[in-house]
Write a structure and sequence with these properties.
The complex is a heterodimer of chains A (about 425) and B (about 375). Chain A is of the alpha/beta class and about 425 residues long. In chain A, about 35% of the residues lie in helices and about 15% in strands. Chain B has three helices and 27 strands. Classes of the chains: A alpha/beta (about 425), B mainly beta (about 375). Chain A: Pfam families: LIP (PF03583).
């Protein structure tokens, strides 16, 4: 062979090797190349192509990273505590199809990442619009659960924050759909340990935590982990304000101040199963324009405050929740049918006006009935205040799981 | 607080009493500045409050900062006050989280540029007054803080700017006083571009402050050791201009003509009319309560009267050949120029000249050191 040819081969090989991301040992296919070419995050209201899924999706396994870029860990205190990256990773949707999900990986400074445990932090309802993406709020210092992230970082844990499926220009978020949320959480943990810049170990101890939508996502990840991501070194699951039974929770909000969350739940289900559920066919003109406006511009505050006094019959007829395809998918996405194999901490406020208490208590009872270890605690601070009030006890549960302390289930009580 | 009538001396400017008093108390190289002047600046920021689009925040900043200070001045911290207008949308968000009151801190990015274009970044921490969030609409909260103490060691122009960003650490509370669901949260506010950021400009320099004028009447005695018998009464006045920055002054000394009894040949009684003729400005300093003065004057024997009546002085040109130099120092524990005080000093007398027939006798008597001067200064009305 002539010299030019061998040189070319050598160069191509070198380039290919350089482009390969590190993947777990024993992976059958080569991990996809991580595209690091995207510019820095833009302000929330601006476009940002980082979030637009590539078409077609590259080859790879769930949890493989296909895009990464440095980002800000939050406001100044957060930035002093940790380095952060936004990532796009391969995952699985509610119909078991391959998809991509984005998220943020935060690694505390001054610690050896190889021995740093990982908390999968699942955010509460952020809202249907692209500007509400959790990673975008974290980067612009406007994430409402930053206090808990900072406390986790201060405790020395790396934090993996999934955005959940569907946040991009023309969003298609599968809000509250456990079959999509669970994989998004678990693959987010995998992605965190596969990001070379983070330096985290694939065998890092993991605890999953969240409140409200995040509480639901945490329990889903716990339930799916034994079959979907058995290699994750899961130590515990913590969830507060858990919406276990979507129908119960959503129907309870009809005509109430939290009605905006019910509308969003309808949007989320429809986004996950649109061919089947056909929400558009139920909507009147007001419903069509309102739901479109929600996906264009509503975040949590709008959901909390702008739909007080409204009810489903203002926007649609009949109520989709009563229709069989909806009922089947809701049943499939109801928590409590399979065991979580690690200790669980579940908390709820009996006076929660948004996520109904009874259905959360019933989940706890189901879990106890399955022989799980469940520590249950009640707060008297409604919903939005419990977002913060529950943090101290959750942190204690997380610390105990990382230190290997036996959990203290109160199922018998 | 002392209450004195504002003193006025010939040709001098009115000086505020407080400034004059400060000039006394700190009459050393580190004198404190002249009157502070009110300054204000309005700035617009954009804040990333949780859960919402970036929100405007308007700050109206006020302070009292002197427009000029002498070189070498250390200024105490300046109190900075600000009124902050919080948008209706931000208030709406706080209300969504059941916030009843808001308090906390705001740290403002600022800078001081010293003469010579030396820019020092500063952080000005301020405390927010606890404010109730209204049921609807935006609201105003106030913040107060201080700059650090500043040192102006070089002359020129200095400026204090509020530039850079603001970091709010908000303490949002429910009606029962407990923390909201946000717990402790920080909000960064970025200053909108293209605004005037200068809060105050300070001129630093020696000539920024006019000298303070003081005037006194003078009364005392001088004892001319070898020339006169008995003390020579002194009256007159002194008008001084004091530089507060350095503590140095120059003055015009007037010693009125006076009379003395001379001893000539030990026995001849001679009365003399003596005049003191200033040859130069009197100079000295007032530092740490000690007044010094160096006066230069010719001693003139205007007329001599033998046996008290016979004029024998010649053509009236009898005086010291070389000017005398009197070095005086205040004797009070602390010389307060507003009150006056006592000075004591000594001076020498040279050979006399132009004294006619008696020169040969008087000159040796006059000549010599150890002559004393003992005077009291009383502020002129």
């Amino acid at each position: 062979m002539n010299r030019t040819f061998t040189t070319r081969i050598a160069r191509l090989t070198a380039a290919a090797l350089a482009g390969l991301a590190l993947g777990p040992i024993g992976q059958a296919s080569a991990a996809p190349v991580i595209d690091r070419s995207f510019p820095a995050p833009t302000p929330n209201a601006a476009p940002d192509p980082f979030y637009t899924p590539p078409a077609p999706l590259p080859a790879g396994e769930p949890g493989d990273i296909i895009r990464a870029r440095p980002s800000k860990a939050g406001p100044p205190t957060a930035r002093s505590l940790a380095n952060a990256w936004q990532v796009m990773y391969l995952s699985t949707d509610a119909l078991q199809r391959r998809n991509v999900v984005t998220g943020t990986v935060l690694v505390p400074k001054g610690k050896d990442p190889a021995t740093t445990p990982v908390v999968a932090f699942n955010g509460g309802t952020s809202g249907p619009a692209f500007k509400c993406t959790i990673s975008r709020f974290i980067n612009s210092g406007a994430f409402y659960e930053q206090a808990m992230i900072n406390r986790l970082l201060q405790a020395g844990y790396a934090v993996s924050v999934t955005d959940y499926e569907g946040y991009r220009q023309n969003p298609n978020t599968s809000y509250m759909v456990g079959k999509a949320m669970g994989p998004a959480v678990l693959d987010g943990v995998r992605a965190a340990t596969r990001l070379p810049e983070a330096g985290l170990s694939p065998s890092a101890k993991v605890v999953i935590h969240g409140f409200s939508q995040g509480g639901g996502a945490s329990m889903w990840a716990g339930q799916l982990q034994p079959t979907y991501a058995p290699e994750i070194n899961l130590q515990g699951v913590s969830g507060g304000g858990v919406p276990a039974n979507l129908a119960s929770v959503a129907i309870g909000l009809n005509g109430k101040p939290g009605f905006g969350f019910m509308l969003y739940a309808l949007i989320g289900l429809d986004n996950a199963y649109s061919d089947e559920l056909q929400l558009g066919t139920y909507l009147n003109a007001a419903g069509t324009s309102t739901l479109a406006a929600m996906e264009a511009g509503d975040c949590t505050i709008e959901l909390l405050l702008d739909y007080d006094g409204k009810q489903a019959s203002d926007y649609m007829s009949p109520l989709p929740f009563g229709q069989l395809p909806w009922l089947l998918r809701i049943a499939e996405n109801t928590l409590g049918s399979t065991k979580i194999n690690v200790p669980v901490y579940q908390y709820h406020a009996p006076n929660d006006p948004i996520v109904e208490y009874d259905q959360a208590r019933q989940l706890r009872d189901k879990y106890c009935g399955l022989g799980m270890s469940v520590t249950w605690k009640e707060f008297d601070t409604g919903h939005v205040t419990t977002v913060g009030r529950g943090n101290t006890d959750a942190l204690a549960f997380i610390a105990d799981r990382f230190s290997g302390k036996p959990a203290t289930s109160n199922c018998g009580q | 607080m002392l209450h004195h009538a504002i003193r006025r001396s010939r040709g001098a400017r009115r000086v505020p009493v407080a400034a004059a008093l400060l000039g006394v108390l700190f009459a050393s190289a580190a004198a404190t500045p002249a009157t502070a002047a009110p300054v204000s600046l309005t700035l617009n920021y954009t804040c990333n409050f949780p859960l919402m689009d970036p929100q405007p925040l308007k700050l109206q900043i006020t302070s009292d900062i002197p427009s000029s200070v002498p070189v070498g001045t250390s200024t105490p911290p300046f109190v900075i006050s600000a009124k902050a207008d919080v948008s209706a949308e931000a208030a709406y968000g706080l209300k969504a989280l059941e916030t009843a009151t808001i308090a906390g801190t705001a740290v403002a990015g600022a800078s001081i540029t010293l003469p010579g274009d030396v820019r020092l970044p500063l952080q000005v921490p301020t405390t927010l007054t606890k404010t109730t969030v209204p049921a609807t609409g935006g609201f105003q909260t106030t913040a107060t803080g201080e700059t650090p103490a500043l040192q102006f060691s070089a002359p020129g122009s200095a400026s204090i700017k509020v530039e850079g960003d603001l970091v709010l650490k908000l303490d949002a509370r429910l009606a029962d006083g407990a923390k909201t669901g946000l717990e402790d949260f920080e909000t960064e506010c970025f200053q909108n571009p293209g605004q005037n950021t200068t809060l105050a400009t300070i001129v630093v320099g020696n000539d920024t402050q006019p000298p303070v004028a003081y005037g006194y009447t003078l009364k005392g005695v001088s004892a001319l050791k070898t020339l006169t018998t008995g003390p020579v009464p002194l009256t007159g006045g002194i008008d001084a201009k004091l530089d507060l920055a350095t503590g140095n002054y120059t003055a015009d000394l007037v010693l009125n003509s006076t009379k003395a009894n001379l001893k000539v040949l030990g026995t001849l009684p001679v009365k003399a009319d003596i005049a003191f003729q200033q040859t130069d400005k009197t100079r000295g300093s007032l530092k740490a309560g000690v007044l010094t003065a160096t006066a230069k004057f010719h001693v003139r024997l205007k007329q001599l009267y033998l046996f008290g009546v016979l004029p024998i002085a010649g053509d009236g040109q009898c005086r010291t050949k070389a000017a005398s130099i009197a070095n005086m120092k205040s004797t009070d524990a602390f010389f307060d120029p507003l009150k006056g005080g006592n000075l004591k000093g000594t001076y020498g007398i040279s050979d006399l000249t132009g004294c006619g027939l008696l020169e040969a006798f008087i000159s040796p008597l006059a000549k010599g050191g150890g002559n004393t001067i003992d005077i009291n200064l009383t502020p002129k009305a």
